[in-house]
Amino acid sequence: MRIRDIQVGSISLPLTHPFKTALRSVDHVDDVVVRVIGEDGRMGYGEAPPTAVITGETKGSVACAVKEFIAPALRGMDLMDLEAVMARLQGCMVHNTSAKAAVDMALLDLWGKALGAPLWRLLGGAKKSFPTDLTISVNGVDEMVRDSLEAVGRGFDILKVKVGKESKTDVERLTAIRKAVGPEVKLRVDANQGWSPREAVRIISALEDAGLDMELVEQPVPAADFEGMKYVTARVNTPILADESVFSPADAVRVIQERAADLINIKLMKTGGVWPALKLCAIAETFGVECMIGCMLESKLSVSAAAHLCAAKGVITRADLDGPSLCSVDPFSGGPVFDGPTVTMTEEPGIGVGDIPCTDWQ
User: Fold this and answer.
1) What's the pLDDT tens digit per position in 222-258?
2) Active-site option among 20, 230, 267, 270
């Protein structure tokens, strides 16, 4: 099947609550969507959020990258020669990982449809269902406690708590949440690069001394502070998860070999899609390091692609795929079933998500 065209559009979905981290505050999913059209008229779909504070991309830059560089490079290629198509996609321009990710997942969606099989089975089929956490945005202590209790009331027993914006009260936030939700709920801490190395060691050590039992701490220091990440990892007992510090396979190898972190967080918008993320999985398997699969502020469309990767690979042992649960509406049909804390894969071919709410294709 040859690629006839690649088009872009947009979607906007309101969030149930504003999403607040140490880096930004957002109240809508406002993303670029991509569709790849095969010569037989079938279509594959993908999505990219503009996350300038992490990937450096804006909505305009993503759309431009797809229309002006990626689409001309891929039109007319044979999708069944998937290795060549993906090599062309990744090589047609540098960086622009979210734009590439949107096209990557649309290509794989169409590829799966052409083969009549779900992507998660084509890529490995390790598990049919798995749990995800739910993010608690950084706010005042009382509001974070209320949001945590609401999440537990919805059935979530793994919470990812955002901190790092006002480090002086981060221990207070986490202490209050642990007291409110009890010992059975897993707490993951995400500082979003908000601490200095010494500050991170002080805060994590205080959490350990208080017996608050944090499952992991994600990206405690700025992404570029590699030595700072090593400093923290060497001085605390809580597992450290590298997120913004790992975009590429080379980043993963460096983090693992130099023990700058204990775990790797894979996000398709950082890797450039599912296909490059498979290389990170292979590296992690080689070194015996577990991975988490995460997402940016994305709708069910692209989060479903990440879910397929999670279900395909056993090395991905944790999931932070709460994008659909953060949105106040779900206009999509098909695809993986996001039922509160449980994600269950289906046998629909490709990624499986339909009814794309977009009318401005170009």
Assistant:
1) 999 999 999 999 999 999 999 999 999 999 999 999 9
2) 267
User: Could you count the other beta carbons within 10 Å of the beta carbon of residue 67?
Assistant: 16
Catalytic site residue from 20, 100, 113, 162? 162
Nearest CA among 230, 279, 225 for reference residue 252: 279
* pLDDT tens-digit readout, 268-315: 999 999 999 999 999 999 999 999 999 999 999 999 999 999 999 999
pTM equals 0.97
Q: Write out the CATH class of domain 121-354.
A: alpha beta
Topology (CATH) of 3-116 = Enolase-like; domain 1 (3.30.390)
Task: State whether the Cα torsion 75-81-86-88 is positive or negative.
Answer: negative
CB-based contact 51:20 (threshold 8 Å)? no
Q: Is 270 a catalytic residue?
A: no
- 59 belongs to the catalytic site: no
Burial of 334 (0-12, 13-18, 19+ CB in 10 A): middle
